[in-house]
Amino acid sequence: MSKILITCAITGSIHTPSMSPYLPVTADEITEHALGAAEAGAAILHLHARDPATGQPSAAPEHFMAFLPRIKQASDAVLNISTGGSAVMTLDDRLAAPKRAEPEMCSLNMGTMNFALYPAAERITEWKHDWEKPFLENSDDLVFKNTPRDMTRILTEMGVERGARFEFECYDVSHLYMLRHFADRGLVKPPFFIQFVFGVLGGIGPDPENLMHMKLIADKLFGDNYMFSVLAAGRHQTPLVTMSAAMGGHVRVGLEDSLMIARGQLAKTNAEQVVKIRRIVEDLGREVVDATEARAMLGLKGADRTAI
Ligand code: KMH
Ligand code: ZN
């Protein structure tokens, strides 16, 4: 109960440059934000790449490799590469960088779903780049495809063949049952690190009752063989993540999930969010673990066994 993992998700593929001038997009910015977050107490860095010229989410291995070795050289933090990428990317695209980097950890999205970003478009009056408006608006007819075949492929190519372990991203109760299915098939081994995701339009809503229920069902399905962490979108980040810490869960913050540091105030760095949640969880009596302890808790292969 006492030890707590802080994950920081640095940039993601949801927010666009017009939403915040502080969203990191270049390799320099992603490196600087990631190192700041690690310094502030994030044991795990969840990473996506962007095209440095436009800020558009990118699956290109060269965009990832422009920052991954720099972060690894300067920090001991666990590097966790997204296999979700962006819902507009093919699975081949989404897997290209993780297969190249062979990281200790990857995300794995546990179901096909709607991933609706279009309400955010209404709040933007000035667009920095041409791609942003259609990217957000067209999400009203976009499927984030994660079929059992896709998940099997990620588990096999990243887990079985490259020794990565997973951040299982569960956006609904049904996704927990999908994870149980893969555990029953022997494709994944405990301890499972399950990220409960709240507040994505298309996934479960950011209600405290939903967190209670997700934990109840996860307890039933996985017993002592799992750890849960919470991320929540936008203004729901701090309340839901704090609730997780109070319930014995772990926490994820970062500009991927929320651009804010307080009501009406943009976060200038990822580190600010880590500092804030660290203060809260320590006040709750939790002990923030470093990357070495995180590796032991999660059963990771070690930074020296990656291709970064
Ligand atoms: N931004 C989160 C809601 C992934 O990278 O695989 C989802 C996410 C997906 O982190
Ligand atoms: Zn992500």
TrEMBL record:
Cofactor(s) demanded: Zn(2+)
Pfam name, any one: BKACE
Entry's Gene Ontology molecular function annotations: 3-keto-5-aminohexanoate cleavage activity; metal ion binding
Keyword annotations: Metal-binding, Transferase, Zinc
InterPro entries assigned to the protein according to its UniProt record, in alphabetical order: Aldolase_TIM, BKACE
PANTHER family in the cross-refs: 3-KETO-5-AMINOHEXANOATE CLEAVAGE ENZYME (PTHR37418:SF2), 3-KETO-5-AMINOHEXANOATE CLEAVAGE ENZYME-RELATED (PTHR37418)
Protein name: Uncharacterized conserved protein, DUF849 family
Organism of this sequence: Salinihabitans flavidus
